[in-house]
Amino acid sequence: MRVLVCDKVSEKGIQILQNAGITVDVKLKQTEDEIVNIVGDYQAVIVRSETKITKRIIEAGNQLKVIGRAGVGVDNIDVEAATMKGIVVCNAPEGNTIAAAELTMSHMLALARKIYPAANALKGGQWARSKYTGVELKGKILGILGLGKIGSEVAKFAQAFGMTIYGYDPYVTEERAKNLGVEIKSLEEIYAHADFITVHMPKTKETYRMISTEQLAMMKDGVRLINCARGGIIDEEALYNAIVSGKVAGAGIDVFEKEPTTESPLFGLEQVLVTPHLGASTEEAQVNVAIDVSEEIVRVLHGEVVRAAVNIPSVKPELMAIFAPYLDLIERLGRFIGQTVNGSIEKVTISYAGDLAKHNLNPLTTSFLKGMFKPSLQDSVNFVNAPHVAKQRGIKVSEIKTGDTEDYSNLITATVETSKGTRSVAGTVLRRNRGHILRVDDYNLNVELEGHMIVAPHYDRPRIIGGIGTVLGEHEINIAHMHVGRNVVGGEAIAILSVDAAVPTEAVKELAKVDGVLDVKYVDLT
Ligand SMILES: NC(=O)C1=CN([C@@H]2O[C@H](COP(=O)(O)OP(=O)(O)OC[C@H]3O[C@@H](n4cnc5c(N)ncnc54)[C@H](O)[C@@H]3O)[C@@H](O)[C@H]2O)C=CC1
Ligand SMILES: O=C(O)CCC(=O)C(=O)O
């Protein structure tokens, strides 16, 4: 067996592979074409963040069984293409947490004390003390967006410096935050009060450029920002303008929208401290992630149970035939819920009625959790780690089994309680093994769970559905199906629309303004 190592990883990991009888070829800084030409000879590939494993490479990897990421983010790997080809993608989710949290603190301290411009000035022959007077961290408010592994460590470190921590993470409960000593706040509150803001979430459709001109304007004058997560979460052009205008006092940036890069307008500003994606670059972290990913690769190549795969279910083969359509249905119900609830999730109850209830339903519940977390965690949540992620966030998960199904051979009902209310959905598998949603809260309907959907609770009165249609029409979005559920004439109702294209944020905002519409959620099930 042969492994191709495309980015520099610790020798300790390579030794693990070699000790398992695997031939290791280290070929760094290869172009996509070069990798396409050789990847057919390998069963496994290892990368860090630099090399992109594209669909072309995956398609050329005829013998590929596993792609290992020596680190957390798998956004440089086409996970969907790998999954389609049955290739396991695994990562090393924990080995570099401390390294990234410590780099964040380094940026924070360096920004507070203007270390970078002061050092440059001194080396350039200027002994300029008063120009480089800084601020203290003690007594300041730190806003942490994303309270996962790294965000939580940063919270602990910053508390040791006497900072007050405000946190925002839709997937973390008040209780978990309290245990971390973090006060959960809305984004608006953090923007209004924080002296320092640091981001620690994956790059998703939701987080991409989530800090841009509008958000920067809401921030306290003289705020300092740090991005050691993913390039693009803070809009680079908007940040540049906010620093030039004096609104933002400084920024520490480790990651860039385009990487690698040696050119950026931000590089010309002395208030900006930049590092070339060094979050995980400590000797310790590199040993940790290389060991973790190499052990995982050995497990995959030896056909053993994998621990940190981001794209495979763990269902016994004999149950797979029964479970397959329901695994897909329940993951979609989870994705639907994950995109339509308000507030942080505290409790999940899944009720299984019908023949399914005879089996161990753990994989199905796990599939629901995976779907529910997907909108925020993207590919870093998987069948192996979804229950662990729920536990980490203090979310209570329970299953109820009953033989009675009313009208369907199997009916799955998922109820999610959040800090802001409860949402319940029910679904089943109908013709051609397609998943259908049959109930949302108290409203009965029957809609195929796929593609692009809009969920809009509203008052049951004239002109509202017309208003929704007009907004979609103005955005050239075609409505494929529409279902309206109501219980009392003239009371509250819900509209579920299946549309033919993605709904841009602007259109969602306009839909929310239609008179009588109570809430609007865009659900992407593509
Ligand atoms: N600069 C570097 O070299 C490194 C960067 N990273 C990056 O740091 C980020 C965080 O990593 P971990 O803490 O290990 O991941 P994690 O998965 O433990 O935590 C991510 C957190 O972000 C939260 N989140 C998702 N969407 C959100 C939103 N819209 N608003 C607020 N919170 C949201 C999730 O609920 C989760 O708690 C990842 O993007 C990872 O790739 C990780 C290691 C090194
Ligand atoms: O491999 C690296 O150096 C980058 C680490 C990283 O960004 C991650 O683990 O998400």
UniProtKB/TrEMBL annotation:
Keywords: Amino-acid biosynthesis, NAD, Oxidoreductase, Serine biosynthesis. GO terms for biological process: L-serine biosynthetic process. SUPFAM superfamilies: ACT-like, Formate/glycerate dehydrogenase catalytic domain-like, NAD(P)-binding Rossmann-fold domains, Serine metabolism enzymes domain. PROSITE patterns: ACT, D_2_HYDROXYACID_DH_1, D_2_HYDROXYACID_DH_2, D_2_HYDROXYACID_DH_3. Pathway: Amino-acid biosynthesis; L-serine biosynthesis; L-serine from 3-phospho-D-glycerate: step 1/3. Catalyzes the reversible oxidation of 3-phospho-D-glycerate to 3-phosphonooxypyruvate, the first step of the phosphorylated L-serine biosynthesis pathway. Also catalyzes the reversible oxidation of 2-hydroxyglutarate to 2-oxoglutarate. This is D-3-phosphoglycerate dehydrogenase. It comes from Heliophilum fasciatum. The lineage of its organism: Bacteria, Bacillati, Bacillota, Clostridia, Eubacteriales.
